[in-house]
Design a protein that fits this description.
The complex is a heterodimer of chains A (263) and B (336). Chain A has 263 residues and is an alpha/beta fold. Chain A has eleven helices and ten strands. Chain A folds into two domains: 171 residues, Rossmann fold (3-Layer(aba) Sandwich), CATH 3.40.50.300; 82 residues, Rossmann fold (3-Layer(aba) Sandwich), CATH 3.40.50. In chain A, a hairpin with a 2-residue loop joins strand 9 and strand 10. Chain A has a six-stranded mixed β-sheet, with helices on both faces. Chain B is mainly alpha-helical. Chain B has one domain. Chain B has twelve helices and two strands; from the N terminus they run αααααββααααααα. In chain B, a hairpin with an 8-residue loop joins strand 1 and strand 2. Classes of the chains: A alpha/beta (263), B mainly alpha (336). At the A-B interface, helix 3, helix 4 and helix 5 of A face helix 6, helix 7 and helix 8 of B.
Chain lengths: 263, 336
């Protein structure tokens, strides 16, 4: 734990006073927190607490009515998803969003989209620099495939894969972008114990080997307490706690939110 | 494509053609009302294949847009008409046909940008059926708009492709085989277009992005694919394919309103080949073209002729029964 604490650097991303409403429903209400470099941050909370909305705000799918987000010191109010991707924010989805008709390799290659710069004309010719670029990026994708131990399904259309593997391919696509920050929306939902253990190992390895900052949403408290450096708790769109796993576990407000309060 | 698939096609296709030929020669031996000789059969077959390439050219435009947005673009036929009308109009204004081609291509790109802005952008993440309805709107708009600007008279589009019938393989077959040189040019143009597009879609970054957008808008955005650019690109390419198809069809049959309706002929081609496959559009076109030609000539007399009009649809119906995704379409995978 202590050596991990040493690793963790300055604030990488800061959300301040985020308020997001859909019509009359307040999904997020004045939420502020920080994500520090190299840490694993877990966002937890009961159903409907606004966790997924928070991720969608960070990666630009939703635009909050109030509040600001600053990433690497640069502040922004509205941002499109592809700009977020360009700046180094990659993500996975709660309900897997893969390109189902495409092979595992092709899915992961789409993650390299932004690393490939050759223009349209070269692309159309599929020759010269464009071909060289394609090969270089393919090499990186093969590394990701080795890392996630999915060599055997390289050419399989992902629609045919079991759920656990699809989740892994989705992680691979996000990793292929070499992101600075990785947002994982329930990476272990619906998995059995072994698959969960695998996924935990991959998340810790990514954090360890590549130094990628990770923000994840998870419901399995055992997992959250094991792997995260810090935990943010949301309830009804408000932040009710923020701290180390042990501190959060002991927090009375958190216990109330999860177990209910007697009136 | 794996070698096994290729070898199956290499042996299967000639065998199928030979089987059909022997079937007809058997029929001819039964009754004198059937006429059959092998050179004549091959001539009809090749005429049909060349006609099929023309169908493929139109089907190609549909496949492009379907691949990139899972939308059946009803307006493809009217894009063909619009492109042909614009090209003829420019030539009539005195431009050389190469210059007219470039200008028309630019107009088609502009059209793609306008369609993205006005029609597609407000409909991100809407169900496909709504997008389809929107393309019906585009169909009628383009249909009327093109004729308002350029007039509704039948026009001749001539860019100097020779139209004389020529004899080929004179050494091999007695008297040679009669082939329309215009169709031959169309076939070569079609082949080149398909080769380029197939490589583009399968192996390049932009091709992959196009397929990704077709699969899942949201996921595509999250990996940094700019949805709008991709749509403009794909509608532009479809527009230029429409232009090529318009030149070929316009040169063959004249530029007129009915050009928009050749889209209906592309439909069985798509069902046969698969909506998502570029090679499928070609093979589908060839099978439909050759099939209806051969059926008309050798079987038509049996049922009083004119089967050319419905043969393609019947063939499509049969394919739907056995392979709903078409010959080359992506397998429909669903986990429940």
């Amino acid at each position: 734990m202590s050596e991990q604490a040493k690793r963790i650097g300055d604030t990488l991303l800061r959300v301040e006073g985020i308020t997001l409403s859909f019509g009359g429903v307040r999904a997020l209400n004045d939420v502020s927190f920080e994500i520090k470099e190299h840490e694993i941050l877990a966002i937890i909370g009961p159903n409907g607490a606004g966790k997924s909305s928070m991720l969608n705000v960070i990666n630009g799918f939703y635009h909050p009515q109030e509040g600001t987000i600053s990433f690497k010191g640069r502040e922004r109010k509205r941002m499109r998803p592809y700009v977020a991707a360009k700046q180094g924010i990659a993500r996975t989805f709660q309900n897997i969003a893969l390109f189902k008709g495409m092979s595992t390799l092709d899915n992961i290659m789409t993650g390299r989209m932004l690393k490939m710069k050759r223009n349209f004309l070269w692309q159309a010719l599929y020759w010269g620099p464009a071909l060289k670029e394609e090969i270089e990026n393919r090499e990186f994708c093969e590394k990701v495939i080795d890392f996630l131990e999915i060599q055997a399904i390289r050419k399989t259309p992902v629609g045919r894969l079991p759920y656990g593997l699809q989740k892994r391919v989705e992680l691979g696509r996000a990793l292929a972008a070499e992101p600075e920050i990785l947002l994982l929306d329930e990476p272990m939902a619906g998995m059995n114990v072994e698959e969960k253990e695998d996924m935990c190992r991959f998340i810790l390895d990514v954090n360890d080997e590549f130094g990628t900052t990770i923000a994840l949403i998870e419901h399995d408290m055992g997992v959250v307490m094991d792997i995260s450096d810090r935990v943010v708790v949301l309830d009804y769109g408000r932040k009710i706690a923020d701290g180390t796993p042990d501190a959060v576990r002991a927090d009375q407000q958190v216990i109330d939110a999860y177990l209910g309060v007697s009136h | 494509m794996p070698i096994r698939t290729i070898s199956i096609w290499m042996t299967g296709v000639p065998l199928a053609i030979a089987a059909i030929g022997f079937f007809f020669s058997f029929l001819a031996s039964l009754s004198p009302s059937f006429y059959f000789t092998w050179p004549y059969f091959l001539e009809v077959l090749s005429a049909g294949l060349l006609q099929g390439v023309m169908y493929s050219l139109v089907a190609l435009g549909f496949v492009l847009i379907f691949k990139a947005s899972s939308v059946f673009n009803f307006a493809q036929g009217s894009m063909v008409l619009f492109a042909a009308l614009t090209m003829v109009g420019l030539i009539e204004m005195g431009l050389h046909w190469t210059l007219a081609f470039v200008v028309t291509a630019a107009v088609m790109v502009l059209l793609a940008i306008v369609i993205e802005r006005v029609v597609l952008r407000p409909m991100v993440n809407q169900p496909h059926i709504i997008m389809f309805m929107a393309t019906i709107g585009i169909f009628y708009f383009l249909d009327g708009f093109g004729q308002t600007i350029w007039g509704s008279n039948v026009k001749v589009l001539d860019i100097g492709i020779p139209k004389d019938p020529i004899f080929v393989l004179t050494g091999l077959v007695e008297g040679g085989m009669l082939v329309n040189s215009f169709d031959l040019v169309a076939a070569i143009v079609g082949a080149v277009l398909v080769a380029v597009l197939a490589v583009f879609f399968q192996y390049t970054r932009i091709g992959r992005a196009l397929r990704a957008v077709a699969d899942d808008h949201q996921a595509a955005q999250s990996v940094g694919i700019p949805l709008k650019t991709i749509w403009v690109v794909v509608w532009s390419v479809a527009g230029i394919v429409a232009l090529v198809a318009g030149i070929m069809w316009g040169g063959k049959a004249g530029v007129q309103f009915t050009l928009a309706l050749i889209a209906l002929k592309a439909l069985p081609v798509l069902i046969l080949g698969g909506f998502t496959s570029i090679p499928g559009a070609i093979v589908g076109g060839l099978i439909i073209g050759a099939g209806e030609q051969v059926a008309e000539v050798f079987l038509g007399s049996l049922v009083g002729g004119a089967i050319q009009d419905w043969f393609a649809y019947m063939l499509a119906l049969v394919v739907l029964l056995f392979r709903p995704q078409g010959l080359f379409g992506e397998k429909i995978i669903e986990r429940v």
